[in-house]
Amino acid sequence: MPFIDRRRFTLAALSAPFVCTSAVRGDDAPSKKITLGLIGVGTRGRDHVNAFLRMNDVQVLAVADVVAERREYHKKLVDDYYTKKDKASKSDCKAYNDFRDLIARKDIDAVVISTPDHWHAIPCVLAAKAKKDIYCEKPLTHAIAHGRKIVEAVKDNKVIFQTGSQQRSEYNQDFWKAASYVRSGRLGKVHTVCIGVGGPAVECKLPTQETPKGTDWDLWLGPAPKRGYHSDLCPKGVHKHFPAWRNYQEYAGGGLSDMGAHHFDIAQWALDMDGSGPVKIEPPEKGDSGLKFTYANGVVMVHGGPSGCTFIGSHGLIYVDRGKLQSFPEEVLKTPLTDKDAKLYKATNQQRNWIECVKSRKEPICPAEVGHRTSTVCQLGNIGYWLRRALTWDPAKEQFEDDKEANKLVDREMRGDWKL
């Protein structure tokens, strides 16, 4: 099996802690359609536009983006789709520069937020206060304290919230299966988890470029520190790639958060830690992998190893990534799950699961608390790498113990008049 050298893994070896190495770098329409507004229509936002357009019980009414070409492109995309589908109807999708104008519309039931990470918390809280259901991309927030604000706003306003952690639902449900086998004790006592994703975020030192006409750069920055425009952060016009703002600590959490929000999410799920998290963070002296998270039950999760998630227990291991699901011994995954095994939430499409829950008012597969806890793990990892010392974390209080410097990084100061 690729990634797993069988000669290295014996049941005797599996009883000892494992050291991870090799850092990685629609449906029938109801009587009333759910009306939707999409905030942020870059590459990922366009994926969402196309997905929701195909749902017969959803009507896209508006899009918002700080780049004029992007919002006008997607307005036309929506209008053309609906006109082609039903020539007798008149589609008039509105395009907004400022997302607050979209949220203010009383005829919009729900919003989809696909902005850069530093622009998740404020739209989420404002939308929740406006009683709109929310789908927000992962990682949920850019600061641990902001995530808690989202959870509180969602609870107080009784809105349906889905985090875009689609590995729980999709990819042939391989991640659901892996988590189910781990949760059901098929590996015996799990002692180590390896998460192979990129490194921590770094300071943005890009030079300043001329701001393109039609781009509201100050609004793109929003609560982030003031700096000059650069196309790596906010590409010109309609683009087809994922921008590099993900690399920089002013706007995101690096590869550690970008793909980590997917894979750490599966680890939290499999370890039954959706409402909690690790209690100790131990970074390496140098390098961008090897940081260790320790949970109160003694399980160690290592940032490093092959891409994806590797769960190691006293009876074997399970490795899962997109398009890959393996175990050693092979019999671990060959033995079918039964009614006696753990019953994890099952869905087949993250967006569709949200829409169904908007209609039923039931909780979706990845609600705000779950998204917040996963995002917290990513941010704890970043803080560990930035400070380069062992940290003790209280997942109930969401504070570091006896460390003022670390606790300052739990929150982020917002620029100007922006606030939660």
Describe the structure.
By secondary structure, the protein is of the alpha/beta class. It folds into two domains: 6-23 and 168-200 and 255-408, Dihydrodipicolinate Reductase, domain 2 (2-Layer Sandwich), CATH 3.30.360; 34-167, NAD(P)-binding Rossmann-like Domain (Rossmann fold), CATH 3.40.50. The chain is 31% helix and 17% strand. The protein has helices spanning 11-14, 43-53, 68-85, 99-103, 121-129, 144-157, 174-183, 217-221, 254-258, 260-270, 331-334, 350-360, 368-387, 404-408, and strands spanning 34-39, 58-64, 94-96, 110-113, 133-136, 161-163, 190-196, 280-282, 292-294, 300-313, 316-321, 324-328, 391-394, 399-400. A hairpin with a 4-residue loop joins strand 13 (391-394) and strand 14. Helix 6 packs antiparallel against helix 13 (368-387) and helix 7 (174-183) runs parallel beside helix 10. The radius of gyration is 22 Å and the shape is globular.
